[in-house]
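Quiz preparation item.
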């Protein structure tokens, strides 16, 4: 299952996350701090959605109340929510 997500309040413009059986198989982020986001994307591959969400949710960038990692956690939560439907 794959979700495409448009983040809000951050520099990145689009996030696409794929998972099979609750395990992240691919993550791509367009825009934002390229090197950092490529690193995060590679690190979460192979992780469960729940584990990645727990690590990234709530990270703040510059007092915005959110960040690219936080927005990525929202995209991953959408995958979980769709699975439960």
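Solution:
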């Amino acid at each position: 299952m794959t979700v495409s997500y448009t983040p809000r309040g951050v520099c990145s413009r689009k996030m696409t996350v794929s998972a099979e059986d609750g395990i992240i198989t691919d993550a791509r982020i367009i825009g934002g701090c390229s090197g950092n986001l490529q690193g995060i994307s590679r690190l979460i591959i192979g992780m469960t959605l729940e584990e990645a969400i727990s690590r990234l949710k709530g990270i703040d960038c510059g007092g915005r109340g959110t960040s690219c990692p936080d927005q990525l956690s929202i995209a991953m939560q959408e995958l979980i929510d769709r699975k439960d439907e």
